[in-house]
Amino acid sequence: MTSTVPAEFGPALRTAIERSGLSLNEISRRLRARETPVSISALSYWQNGENRPERASSLAAVTALETILGQRPETLTGLLGPRRPRGRSNHRMVAYDQVWRRPETIARALAKVDATPEELDTPHRLSQYVSFRVDESGHEESMRVRRLVRADHDGTSRFLFVIRCSSLTREPVVLFTEGCSPARFRADVPSSTCAFEFALDRTLAAGELAVVEFGVRFPPGQNGEHAQMAIYRPARDMVLQISFDPACLPRHCTAFFQPRTASPPEERGEASFDRETGTFQFITLDPLPGQYGIRWSWT
After folding, report:
1. What is the reported pTM?
2. Which end of the chain is less congested by CB atoms within 10 angstroms, N or C?
3. How many Cβ atoms are within 10 Å of 195's Cβ, its own excluded?
4. At what angle are helices 9-20 and 56-68 packed, to 10 degrees?
5. What is the structure's pLDDT at 45?
6. What was the pLDDT predicted at 2?
C-alpha cells in the first residue's frame, strides 16, 4: 500500500497530525517542552491553511514538529518555500461578520457613532488584556480593558469598543480612562449591543504606539455565562480573565476559541483556574483572528 503526502504545508500538517493520533493540546505541550512553543490556535490555523509559519521561531517549531509527529526531516519544512515579503499587505485581517454573531447589530450600533465595522481594529490592537468581574449574585458586574495600539495612518484620534450585554436596562458607565477619554456612547437597544467611542489623549501618526485603558460597569442583572473578545488580525498577545466573587464560584469553567462563527467552538487547554482567588485566565501568545472566550456554569 502506498501512502501519499499532500504537496501543500497545511494539508500535509493535518495529515501528519491525524496519523500521529496526538491532540493539538498534546502537540502544543510537547513543543513547549522543546522550547519551541506554538499555541493551539496557531497550530489549528497552520493545518487549516489559513496561516503559515514564517518567523525564525516558528520555523524552528516546524522542525520540532517533524520529530514529534514521526515525519522524516524536511517533510514539512520543505513545503514552506521562500519566506513571503513582509509588509502591511501581508497582515491577514478577518471581517467582523466572520467572527460576530448577528453582525448587523454591530453595524447598527456603530452607525450611531458615525463609524463602520471596518474601523473596529483601527488602530491595530497589538496587545489586549480584558478582565471581567462577576459579583456575589453571579452577575457580570464590570470589565477592565487595556490595549497596546499602533496607528495605521496619520491623524488617528479615536478608537471604538463594542460589547453585547445580556440585557440593557440602563446605559453602561465608564468608570475610568487612561490615555483616552469617553467621547460617545450609543446602543442598538433591541439586541443590547453597545458601541463606545473613545478619544485618544493625543493624535497619532502612522506607526506610532499608545497604551489605553478603561473600565466599564454594566447595568444590573447581567446573567450571561460567558465572556469573549474578538481579534480581527494577528496580534502579539491576548489575556482574557474572569474574577469571580469568592462567595459565588462556578462549578465548571472552560476556555474556547472559535475561528469563525460558522465553525464550532474549540476547547482550549491554555487556561488556568485559581479557586483561592476565584480567577480564571485564558492567555494566548501570537493570537490569530477569531473569538476567544471563557464560559462557565453553576451546576
Report:
1. 0.69
2. N
3. 23
4. 40
5. 73
6. 40
Residues 154-190: tens digit of each pLDDT:
889 999 999 999 989 999 999 999 999 999 999 999 9
Helix (H, G, I), strand (E, B) or coil at 98: helix
Query: Quick one: cell of 186?
Result: 450609543
- Structural domains in the chain, CATH included, are 9-79 (1.10.260), 96-297 (2.60.40)
Residues 273-281: contacts with CB under 8 Å, at least 24 apart:
275/249, 277/243, 278/243, 278/244, 278/245, 278/246, 278/249, 279/241, 279/242, 279/243, 279/244, 280/241, 280/242, 280/244, 280/253, 280/255, 281/239, 281/240, 281/241
pLDDT of residue 84: 53
Q: What number of other Cβ atoms are within 10 A of residue 61's Cβ? A: 23
Residue 166 contacts residue 192 (beta carbons within 8 Å): yes
